[in-house]
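Pinned message: reference record for Protein TAPETUM DETERMINANT 1 like
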Amino acid sequence: MTMQMQLPALNFLWISLTLASLFHHGWALGAKCDMNSPTLQQTQVGFGNPPIYMVEVQNNCPLCPVINIHLKCGNFSQSLVNPRLLKVLAYDNCVINGGLPLAPSQKFTFNYSHPKFLMRPTTWFFQCE
Ligand SMILES: *[C@@H]1O[C@H](CO)[C@@H](O)[C@H](O)[C@H]1NC(C)=O
Ligand SMILES: *[C@@H]1O[C@H](CO)[C@@H](O)[C@H](O)[C@H]1NC(C)=O
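Predicted structure (tokens):
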């Protein structure tokens, strides 16, 4: 009796979680890229004071462009970089390339001169045909 009540509820929960996960990664067609989240790498390229960091964001999906890559970016200051490269929207919310597409496997690069900001991609949207 208890099982009969619970199984449909569990199925519903499972389906909801699956759909939520698909939406997060850019709907079902983005599933082609599920194992290929964009990555961000920072390399120190200037050793003065302040240091200079080169940021490289890569679309790791070889099949689909990715748009609207938002980063966790702390209190990154807009004055450090052209907003076309990195637009500061709010604390911990920056968007690269004006939200425009990075081609499959494309690397997107910009530099800033400041003590290091910790940054990582938070949300993005794959555009698979
Ligand atoms: C960012 O925040 C840190 C501490 O949270 C502070 O030391 C730093 O000066 C801030 N940077 C800017 C550009 O506001
Ligand atoms: C960033 O700095 C590196 C090392 O100085 C340089 O090779 C590269 O061209 C710079 N990139 C940009 C986008 O300015």
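Pinned by admin. Summary line: The helical segments are 2-24.
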